[in-house]
Amino acid sequence: MLNLKKSKILLTGGHGFVGTKVYDELLRVGVKKENIYRPKSTELDLHLAGNSAKAVKGRDLVFHLAASVGGIGYNQDHPGKLFYDNAIMGINLIEAARQAKVKKFVQVGTVCSYPKFPEHIPFKEGDLWKGYPEETNAPYGLSKLMLLEMLQAYRKEFGINGIYLLPTNIYGPGDNFDFHSSHVIPALIKKFVEARNNQQPEVVVWGTGSASREFFYVDDAARGIVLAAQKYDKSEPVNIGSNNEVKIKQLANMIAGIVDFKGKVVWDKTKPDGQPRRRLNVSRAKKEFGFMAKISLQQGLKNTIAWYIKQSDK
Questions:
Q1: What SS3 class is residue 197?
Q2: How many of the other CB atoms lie within 10 Å of CB of 306?
Q3: What is the rounded distance in angstroms from the CA atom of residue 136 to the CA atom of residue 124?
Q4: Which residues are identified as catalytic?
Q5: Which domains can be identified in the chain, with CATH numbers?
Q6: 55 near 96, Cβ under 8 Å?
Q7: Cα 193–277–265 angle (5° rounding)?
Q8: Would you say 308 and 176 are in contact if contact means Cβ atoms under 8 Å apart?
Q9: How many Cα neighbours within 13 Å face the side chain of 225?
Q10: How far from chain centre, in Å, is Cα 38?
Q11: What stretches in the chain show pLDDT beneath 70?
């Protein structure tokens, strides 16, 4: 079991949505601030191999959370950028960690790597290579999946202790609410809050509402990532999630109810639904390092909406 308190840690993406919470969780479990290096992309561009070498120098443990991400629309508009950014940053960092003899490497992957139609629902880790990802997510999902293959190959040849985590859709306070690149929960919250404030008669939502997702509160995600770093040392990937699935139509109604929007929800069926269903089998995480999510979707949505409204009022 890794002693986090004695480790010199690199946390990429440490000022981002999930990275900020991982930083907070590391402090909560007793890591000292001076032992955590979390460079901003403006000060250290990880697209450059030399910068990755600088980042890992003198570090025992790497959490790689830096990523280029977005919702369905962003994925459709920027498939090349998403593939290149995520692949090159991960490849550079893993190779730099090998050369620097880093003791442990924690790679955070994505549920988007799973096949569009996996053999099992909930998705099992063994299904990762059994089909092509949903088309709008494929470049992003495959770029992250290549990092799993790289870590496993490097473990076999060079003995690097790399672990790979597969979180489902993460949301919560501090999420990205930008109209062009946000994921489904922040996008819906923004739409319903603005519609309520402007007394609009309806809100238009992409797709049919029939697709389903498993949503994972960011504080739970951070706890799972840190727990895995402490207790998990195997090459097999591990799903982490909430173990609950909800249809997008139900999600929209939940958000409308919490923000007290009284109008009509209109579904734009000309827009894509994305993957039909997403739910992870999280039994491996429970078995290997005792992780289970704690925050319900209802409570998580309330927390996120309250945070967004408070930020909007500033």
A1: helix
A2: 12
A3: 21
A4: 140
A5: 4-171+214-244+277-294 (3.40.50.720)
A6: yes
A7: 30
A8: no
A9: 33
A10: 17
A11: none
Coil vs helix vs strand at 203:
strand
Q: Which residues pair with 171 in a beta bridge?
A: 217
Q: Which amino acid is at 55?
A: A
**Cβ pair 265, 248 in contact under 8 A:** no
- What is the pairing mode between strands 246-247 and 212-213? antiparallel
Please report which helix (H) or strand (E) contains residue 82, including its range: helix 79-99
- What's the pLDDT tens digit per position in 6-28? 999 999 999 999 999 999 999 99
Backbone conformation region of residue 282, classed left if phi is above 0, alpha if psi is from -120 to 50, else beta: alpha
37 closest CA partner among 14, 6, 4: 14
φ/ψ bin of 174: left (φ > 0), alpha (ψ from -120 to 50), beta (otherwise): left
pTM of the predicted protein model: 0.94
For 4-32, letters b (16+ CB in 10 Å) and e give beebbbbbbbbebbbbbbbbebbeeeebe
DSSP state letters, 131-156: SPBPGGGHHHHHHHHHHHHHHHHHHH
pLDDT tens-digit profile of 288-306? 999 999 999 999 999 999 9
